[in-house]
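Budget justification aside, the reviewers requested a transparent look at the raw inputs and outputs of the sequence design task funded under Objective 1. We therefore reproduce one unedited record. The lines immediately below are the structure tokens for a 98-residue chain.
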């Protein structure tokens, strides 16, 4: 879920508060990439089976890495679910800034 803590942390890391980092913003961004309604992106549904391709995943990784999040392509393909990705990004956002 996107809350004020996530937004505050995102701003500290230099990430735009409107970037789809966690919660429903992430779900909506994934749904748009896949071409489905956000309600169709269930927490534990396999995003690859829903139609998310490797090219889109690489673009997401690149975008997140540029935003300062150490997320790897292998992590995404290893557990291609909204819930796993949401948790992983939340972990990155929770890391203290240097």
């Amino acid at each position: 879920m996107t809350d004020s803590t996530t937004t505050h942390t995102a701003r500290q890391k230099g990430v735009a508060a409107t970037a789809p980092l966690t919660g429903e913003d992430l779900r909506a961004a994934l749904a748009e990439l896949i071409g489905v309604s956000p309600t169709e992106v269930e927490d534990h549904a396999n995003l690859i089976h829903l139609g998310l391709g490797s090219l889109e995943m690489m673009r997401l990784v690149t975008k997140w890495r540029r935003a300062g999040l150490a997320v790897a392509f292998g992590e995404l393909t290893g557990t291609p679910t909204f819930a796993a990705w949401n948790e992983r990004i939340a972990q990155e956002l929770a890391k203290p800034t240097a």
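The CA atoms of residues 19 and 25 lie 8 Å apart. The radius of gyration is 13 Å. Computational costs for records of this kind are itemized in the attached budget.
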